[in-house]
Amino acid sequence: MMREMKRLVTPEDIVKFQWPSNPTISPDGKKVVFEKTVARTKENDYETHLHLSDRNGEEKRTLTTAGTSNLSPAWSPDSKAIAYLSNRENGMQAWLLSLEDGQESRITHFRHGISSLIWAPDGEYLYGLVPVQSQTTGIEVLDRSKTAEELNEQIAAENKAWAAGPKRYVQAFYKLDGAGLDRGLRRQLVAIHLDTGEWKQLTNGLFDVSEPTISPDGSYIAFVAYGGDAPLYGGQILRVPTKGGEIEILHAEADAKVPTYSPDGKWIAFYANKEHKQLYVMEEAGGKARLLSGEYPYAMGDLAFTDAYFLRYPVHPQWSRDSKWIYVQTTREGRNEVVRFSQESAAFEVVVNGDRTLFHFSYDGNDGLAIAYSSPDQPGRIAVVSNEGAEVRLDDCNDELMSELIVVEPEEFTFTSVDDWQIQAFLLKPAHYTPGEKYPILLDIHGGPHSMFCYAYFHQMQVFAARGFAVLYINPRGSSGFGREFSEAVHGDYGGKDHLDLLHGLEEAIQRFDFLDKSRVAINGISYGGFMVNWLVTKTDQFFAAISEGCISNWVSMYGTSDISPIFIDHEFAGKTDMESLWRHSPLAYVDKVKTPLLLMHSEQDLRCPIEQAEQFYTYLKRLGREVEFLRMPDASHGLLQIGKPALRVARVQAMIDFISERLPQA
């Protein structure tokens, strides 16, 4: 299709995308199961179903049709069945699907559902995590003599009564953005016999169990245990016998995530360190861990920032069948890649790369990986990649829509900022760019601050490009993907050299690209980016409009109201969390300096950066008679950008376009 026949991107296109994720290769290496999420505009929600493809992409089928959340597929050891989670009856329960005859059966009937399914190597048991009310009450099960409708009514009544009642807490961390207030439930490990349906609780602690992994001989399950602190930086690694028994500590420091056994059963690989995750390996019985990624400067995991996600999963390290190599997902300079590390020598090699953002991967242990990724012109795709680099696409769900749209590819550049640090930046030209014309600029600031702008489709940026804006986005110090020193450079210095990186990047872009109009620059940002917008409009009047979303304006109140504080702020402020220090870094302290027209957008159920942060800034600006508007998003969390209701995601982008366009000076 010729470019002239294509149309501009609109805010409404966000609900037309499909988001494929979580590809998982079968043990025999022949098939891939994955999830795909679509918006339901009439119901104003989403549904996720499982899909199957052979690894050549020739035979494809949809596996689930009932319910709206069908997630976390786990292959049986013989590759003949899939266990998965579904909300089709009485909450999120475990279901079993036979690929031989297509028969489905419900496995669990737990009152509070189940998650994190794993199979025993012999296929006899399925293990999962079940929320438990207390150590004395134990696991609650549903009354199977009642109908599904009766049980749903009972559950709805119990939930309504809980929501309406008083809630008393003694722990420091009692809420979580997107989940709400703590109901006193702690996930515990359960073994379920697949033939009889009988189950046994294997753990019963005050901790939350997460990320279980089973030893190849089926004798132990190792897991991450989160104790009294928020599960922000990781937990301890423990193990329990699958037949039940005493729990042992394998890794005592509470900084670990996603452990995985080697195929020979001798080793456990995992990520550790607080912020800049690195790859470690230890003997299966615990002991001193060896750092494998010491010579690799970048971070483990997915720290990319884009609105093209829906479901995100922590990706375990994955072993080669000979237990010699460990494959991991990494974040590097605007890209997510797969890198393998030698278990013996710590040598490393990039296996899957390119100008794209890798959401998830599954390794068959031999010669292929299934990947889910986004690129600047593609919201989501599933493919299989061989060790030689050959790629077979298994799902091109967005290709038809994307073929209709004018999508702008970013131009990457670097510039020198404070302390001679090299900073990465990207620029999107306007969709109908014409040489010789001058165009307004939108400076977009990511959240985190330890995330990273990347080579991925970003819908709101494409909408602004479609409206004639050049979009500039920068990875200032504090961003991940550029080494530990770079990521930690903002500790104790929020609003310091990081804000200078942004201003220097804007200056560099204006000098480098002659079509940019320096007299017409707007700014927007979310979360940390919202903080930075608030901060910058107290420092300069060069922006004709600004949008601050999910922001921080007052670190003093943020310290006591955020779901991840005080541990997050203690860490980010390098322990300098006295009132004077927190206030000194608060935009509210300098609110009288603001002259820029400002739109504050905030989700009413935001527990990460509570809405009081926007309320304070709004009230003081109104009191001062400044031009400010406040857009409150109902029934939305801090994750509105990626998982908000479809109608709100459209309204959000439209409100941004309207506010900035209405204030755009004439050229």
CATH fold-type name of the largest domain: Neuraminidase
CATH class of the largest domain: Mainly Beta
CATH homologous superfamily placement of the largest domain? TolB, C-terminal domain
On the 0-100 scale, what is the average pLDDT?
Answer: 95
Q: How large is the radius of gyration?
A: 25 Å
Percentage beta strand? 35-45%
Runs with pLDDT <50, length 5+?
A: none
Q: Sum up the overall morphology in one term.
A: globular
Q: How do the strands line up in the largest sheet? A: 32-33-36-34-37-38-39-40
**How far apart are the first and last residues' alpha carbons, in Å?**
33 Å
Q: What class, by secondary structure content?
A: alpha+beta
Tally of helical runs: 12
> What would you say the CATH architecture of the largest domain is?
6 Propeller
β-strand number: 40
Largest sheet: 8 strands, mixed
Q: Give the helix level as a range of percent.
A: 10-25%
Number of domains: 2
